[in-house]
Specification:
Blueprint lengths: L1 H18 L4 H10 L13 H16 L2 E2 L5 E11 L4 E4 L2 E2 L6 E5 L5 H8 L3 E4 L5 E5 L16 E6 L10 E4 L2 E16 L6 E7 L15 H18 L7 E7 L7 H8 L8 E7 L8 E5 L7 H14 L5 E4 L16 E7 L21 H11 L4
Parallel strand pairs: 7-8, 11-12, 11-13, 13-16, 14-15
Antiparallel strand pairs: 1-10, 2-10, 3-4, 3-9, 5-8, 6-7, 10-12, 14-16
Length: 381
């Protein structure tokens, strides 16, 4: 029986490698998810729901079976959306959003950054209670997503401020959404056995900073979702040996909300999961792959195997190990089953939490090799 099982899985692997050598499908998914019609896949104009509908339809077209009705695991949380015209005038001069000023929430920044704000040369509280700070370098943008009692503030590039600030006019179209309805997208391909390999990633991104700034999120994380969906496409070509489960999460940019909800409301038996693999930030890759949760007792063997595979396949410059971290959607699942997180290192891509993170900047020259490497990892017993 074991010989038959190995034979069946080798057939599956042969089919995998025959179908995996073309990044055309992945590029299509990246392009569609990072299009203006998705509104940055955040809370603004319910861009995350538009993306979820697209991905559920894609699962249906590929022939995946749903893990929930309509492939959607629905849940909710409180958040902000940032819809409408945004403007900031200093002494009558209009500043450019994102490149000259950005909007943040205090809770999502480190204590070190709070120290920077406290030492800012220019700071002023507006009539609406929002603080404005002058900084020599703008922080990385994070979405307006936390609870309503968390203060907002605005960073303005010091070089954009006049020597004497007489008047500031600020318009921020921020809307508080209580019990905001969102969803994870979940499907599976039944295998010869019910032991599972699970592929996950987050499809949401930072949405918009008003109507003038859209965070398209090609690298983060349309690219990871493209790889997960490509594996789904490959898995439907021939019956796989393992059952292959696919979970695409919303709410990652708001604090891993979708993956936390999914982990606490399981749709599969964790005892049957051989490995859960989270793919995030999958463009570029000139410098190799980073492997999170490489040193845990139930995942180190997968790191070691991937390193050995890479030595023979010679596709990644480096497989860099990292300890487990609450930095992406594998984290909550790692409490219940072997869970790893892989991301690409190095260029080319359009930036991190940047409006320039667009499909055209998303390099896929390493994509086929890295996908083959990951798929071959499944063959490890």
């Amino acid at each position: 029986m074991k010989k038959i099982s190995i034979f069946l899985f080798l057939i599956f692997l042969l089919s995998v490698y025959s179908f995996a050598q073309d990044s055309t499908y992945a590029r299509k998914i990246i392009r569609d998810l990072s299009s203006p019609e998705m509104f940055g896949r955040g809370h603004s104009y319910k861009g995350d729901s538009i993306a979820a509908k697209y991905l559920a339809n894609e699962m249906r077209n590929l022939g995946l079976l749903p893990l929930q009705v309509d492939y959607l695991q629905r849940y909710s949380y409180d958040c902000y959306s940032f819809e409408g015209p945004i403007s900031l005038f200093v002494n009558g001069k209009k500043l450019v959003p994102y490149s000259q000023y950005r909007v943040f929430q205090a809770s999502i920044n480190s204590k070190n950054h709070q120290t920077v704000l406290n030492k800012a040369k220019f700071k002023r509280q507006m009539n609406n209670g929002i603080w404005v700070y002058g900084v020599d370098q703008l922080d990385t943008y994070s979405p307006i997503s936390q609870a309503s009692n968390v203060p907002l503030y605005v960073e303005i590039l010091e070089s954009a401020l006049p020597k004497k600030v007489k008047k500031i006019d600020l318009n921020l179209p921020i809307h508080y959404r209580e019990n905001y309805q969102t969803q994870n997208v979940v499907g599976y391909v039944p295998g010869v056995i019910d032991s599972m390999v699970v592929f996950v990633g987050h499809y949401d991104h930072c949405g918009t900073m008003g109507d003038d700034v859209v965070f398209y999120g090609a690298h983060d994380n349309a690219s990871g979702i493209a790889a997960v969906m490509d594996i789904a496409r490959i898995s439907t070509q021939r019956k796989p040996y393992y059952t292959v489960v696919f979970m695409l999460f919303s709410g990652e940019e708001s604090g891993l909300k979708g993956s936390k909800y999914a982990s606490m409301n399981p749709l599969v038996d964790y005892r049957k999961i051989k490995l859960l693999c989270n793919l995030d930030l999958f463009c570029g890759g000139d410098d190799g792959l980073m492997f999170f949760n490489a040193n845990s007792e139930n995942t180190k063997l997968y790191y070691d195997k991937l390193v050995e595979l890479n030595k023979s396949m010679k596709v990644a410059k480096e497989i860099r190990p990292r300890n487990n971290s609450a930095n992406s959607d594998h984290y909550y699942f790692s409490q219940f089953c072997p869970s790893i997180y892989l991301l690409s290192m190095g260029q080319p891509y359009g930036g991190y939490h940047d409006p320039k993170d667009i499909c055209e900047s998303c390099g896929l020259s390493h994509y086929n090799d890295y996908l083959s490497l990951i798929l071959k990892l499944i063959d490890f017993n």
